[in-house]
Design goal:
It is a single chain. α3 (134-146) packs antiparallel against α4 (171-179). Helix content is 17%, strand content 35%. The longest helix is centred in the C-terminal third of the chain and has 19 residues, at 344-362. The protein has eight helices and 26 strands. It has 450 residues and is of the alpha+beta class. Among the domains are: 15-119, Thrombin, subunit H (Beta Barrel), CATH 2.40.10.10; 250-353, no CATH class. It is globular and about 70 Å long. It starts with 14 loop residues before the first strand and ends in a 9-residue tail after the last strand. The chain has helices spanning 62-66, 116-122, 134-146, 171-179, 206-211, 250-255, 280-289, 344-362, and strands at residues 15-22, 30-31, 36-44, 51-58, 73-79, 87-103, 106-115, 129-132, 150-152, 162-165, 190-193, 201-205, 221-223, 237-238, 241-243, 260-267, 272-279, 297-298, 305-306, 309-310, 317-324, 364-370, 390-395, 414-426, 429-437, 440-441. A hairpin with a 7-residue loop joins β5 and β6 (87-103). The strands form six sheets. Strands 1, 2, 3, 4, 5, 6, 7, 13, 14, 15, 22, 23, 24 and 25 form a 14-stranded mixed β-sheet that branches. The chain has a three-stranded mixed β-sheet with strand order 9-12-11. A three-stranded mixed β-sheet has the order 17-16-21.
Length: 450
């Protein structure tokens, strides 16, 4: 999944190889390449499909001749330069967002598009019994209904064989439902997602994402007046713009019992509670330190005190959950049901899972950068550079003007996980907006390179 950014330069950021419209109602494909005025494609770590919009300038009766009904196929093929391989994705048009006449002879049509697998998923209903490891069940559903292969994480799911009946869901809803039950051995969550590159879906663990080196570790992104840092010979790429708002909401985590709390899991078969006392710092600090030696400071400090007591020592919430039923307890053939576990330690992984997801949202930043670096160049060994990958960002420290600025901001700088990406293609310009998240801060204000 990792790769090295390229440095080939040309006048246009992107080449539209093909934008073709077709459906079973049409006798032939319609090539829309020359009518495209803009495309936006959205990737999200919590969605196993892409969404987007496309704007067309209609001067040849595309709209009325095609008779858009909201189920047509739209295949988009783009590439970085003439020698590079093309990226190809198949979408369904699911809505005509708007039409606007610009004059008597032309009209701007804006269409909303959804990746073909999501549209197909809506056509199916899954209401059946499955047994096996959660990852295996997800793979089976994807293959049976969506004809999709899933690339799995190196960090396998901790849960053993389970049995469940999917309760009247479509395939994507079912896969996400089961994915939410998964953790690795340490309690780290899994994410099921689709990317603009490979056609496969990815089922990856957060632990592996955090441990992987940043894909741009040799050429970090920097937000600065000049794309270089004083007193170094490092090479950097430029952050065009960034937003850093609505962060560090500690109260939200406290209110969910994910800083300090008591989580009780009730077994309806035995009438017993498994009691989990949760201390976020105790449960996660050591694990986070092991993922990245340059970035060990959990973004939930252990030394906050209120009335002389550390905040993680407060039992802020008592949360009760029905977790076990014994529905598949049949002598030697016993299997855990969807939410069932046999020990408090296994239940604790569910709480760690939830806490880590909240911590990811606690320290987020959105950046806008040149998009062409996120398309595969000729000779590159990877075609996936966006969501799920680690990316390195550098922000200079706030030092008075005239003083030497060799320090970086350790709060905003560091290795982030790309959580979502918006690809914006307008004319020959191609930008990408990335929502980046992290769960720890870097150790020092002194920049450490590769």
């Amino acid at each position: 999944m990792t790769g090295q950014f390229q440095n080939d330069v040309q006048s246009s950021d992107i080449i539209y190889e093909s934008v073709s419209l077709f459906s079973s109602r049409m006798t032939s494909e319609v090539e829309l390449n020359n009518f495209v005025s803009g495309i936006e494609i959205y990737e999200h770590l919590e969605k196993p499909y892409l969404t987007g919009t496309i704007a067309l300038t209609d001067t040849t009766r595309i709209y009325d001749r095609s008779d858009f009904q909201g189920a047509e196929y739209l295949e988009i093929k783009i590439k970085r330069n003439p020698e590079a391989p093309a990226y190809s994705k198949l979408f369904n048009i699911d809505e005509v967002v708007s039409t606007r006449k610009t004059n008597d002879q032309s009209e701007v049509i804006t269409l909303h598009i959804t990746e073909e697998c999501a549209f197909k998923s809506k056509l199916h209903n899954v209401n059946k019994y499955y047994t096996g490891k959660p990852s295996e069940i997800i793979k089976n559903i994807a293959k049976e209904y969506l004809y999709k292969e899933i690339v799995t994480s190196e960090d396998i799911d901790y849960q053993g064989d389970i049995s469940l009946i999917v309760p009247n869901m479509n395939p994507i809803e079912a896969m996400l439902w089961i994915k939410n039950r998964m953790t690795n051995e340490e309690g780290y969550p899994f994410f099921l997602y689709s990317t603009f590159g490979p056609r496969s879906l990815f089922l990856q663990n957060l632990s592996d994402m955090l441990s992987a080196p940043a894909i741009n570790r040799r050429t970090p992104y920097i937000y600065s007046q000049t794309p270089s840092m004083a007193a170094t010979d490092k090479r950097f790429f430029t952050i065009q713009d960034y937003k850093h708002v609505k962060n560090e909401n500690m109260l939200k985590l406290i209110d969910k019992g994910l800083v300090g709390g008591v989580h009780n899991f009730y077994n309806t078969m035995t009438s017993n509670y498994e009691n989990v006392e949760f201390d976020a710092v105790k449960e996660m600090q050591a694990s986070v330190e092991s993922k990245n030696s340059n970035q060990k400071q959990l973004n939930l400090a252990e030394d906050f005190e209120i009335d002389g007591e550390k905040i993680q020592n407060y039992r802020s919430r008592y949360i009760h959950t029905i977790a076990s039923s014994g529905a598949y307890t049949i002598l030697d053939g016993s299997r855990n049901s969807y939410d069932e576990e046999v020990t408090a330690g296994a239940h604790k992984k569910k709480v760690i899972n939830a806490a880590l997801k909240q911590l990811m949202a606690k320290s987020a930043i959105q950046i806008r950068v040149a998009g062409r670096e996120y398309l595969r160049a000729s000779g590159s060994t990877s075609d996936h550079f966006t969501i799920g990958n680690s990316i390195r960002l550098i922000f200079l420290g706030n030092i008075p003007q005239g003083m030497s600025n060799n320090k970086i901001d350790p709060k905003k700088s560091g290795d982030y996980i790309i959580f979502s990406a918006k690809h914006s293609m307008v004319g020959e310009r191609y930008d990408v907006s990335l929502l980046c998240v992290k769960i720890a801060n870097i150790n020092s204000a002194d920049y450490v390179g590769v």
